Amino acid sequence: MFDRYASGEQAVLVHVEFSDEASKEALSELEMLVSSAGVNTLDVVTTSRNAPSAKLFIGSGKADEIADIVRTLNADVVIFNHALSPSQERNLEKVFKCRVIDRTGLILDIFAQRARTHEGKLQVELAQLKHISTRLIRGWTHLERQKGGIGLRGPGETQLETDRRLLRGRIKAILRRLEKVAKQREQGRRSRKRAEIPTVSLVGYTNAGKSTLFNTLTEASVYAADQLFATLDPTLRKLELSDVGPIILADTVGFIRHLPHDLVAAFKATLQETQEADLLLHVVDYADDKYQENTDQVQAVLEEIDADEVPQLMVCNKIDRMEGMQPRIDRDEMDKPIRVWISAQENLGIELLQQALIERLSQSIVERRLRIPPQASHLRGVLFGLNCITAEEYNEQGDWVVDVRMPSADWQRLLKREKGALEDLILTN
Known about the structure:
GTP-binding; seven-stranded mixed beta sheet; 39% helix; nucleotide-binding; four-stranded parallel beta sheet; 15 strands; GTP-bd; magnesium; single chain
């Protein structure tokens, strides 16, 4: 097998234009991915086809042309802007006489460079192992032979079978450790829920400006850069909003079109922050010509992780790059904020975003003053169990007068459970 390329290696990029819309990839995105991986681009080869070739993905003539370019420029790796099958990678490496990486392998490589936390490293390793397990045979011929030598002759597993068994064992071990991490995250989410702290999760296409916005809102120092997948490990910070109180803001990994399924599966624990959020801030780079395609892609990933039902507030970012654009809030027919136009980099419209957040989150919070007579004391116990009593006193009749504050969903459940008995106890709405 050819040595895996290291950061800083010299690459030839290959981009194929297909007539099929679903197979199309953006060349500019490949160039950004390659730059984010720290790889130097020597040349970009483009071609067009109606459908990929089963053997080489591209035509044999174009493959020979790329092989000449690789030899002339002394390139170390050829990177395709498409997903290749293991046999296609193997066949192309025979022609090019160098390492071949597809789009999925490149994204995995960037993730491996970006992972900082123990959890992030485990998630990336799991995705890599699942990807590699289908490609074990590439370039190796000895893997199909059984071990030779004294004490190893005769029946037994081949080297390929040994490697597959070791891979399966490692994948199982990582899954067990990630399960522990998922349980720890779940405990954290449960304790936040008990404390009635709303969670707002930042989602969006990679490089949309999520981390810059996160830093601006929370005065944190999360790594933010004009490159794809600058953020990999999720970061949580507490933010105080007037009329709402403390909220948890979560910065998450960016999405990208044709995000490898292994990555989505590996980052399940991380993406659960998005699934269980009270509100999603969908950050969109509106200065990008392909903002609509990118928005659709984010929605597709949200559907894939079952987070498409979570309420969203659209954040139209980078208006400083658009002529004549000013910060503003767009509202629906019910006067609810649905879109905020800002520039996180230039700190434009941040107050409007905070105002929209307060409006959206306070709509989901119910505040009531209740008079609870002694014969309904069980209700007081229920309210304490929900951890929603903010103040309590006695009136002259010996009743408890309590101020409660809880999510609207909990209040509706309580009304339903008490079968209408609660309405008579409400003093103020």
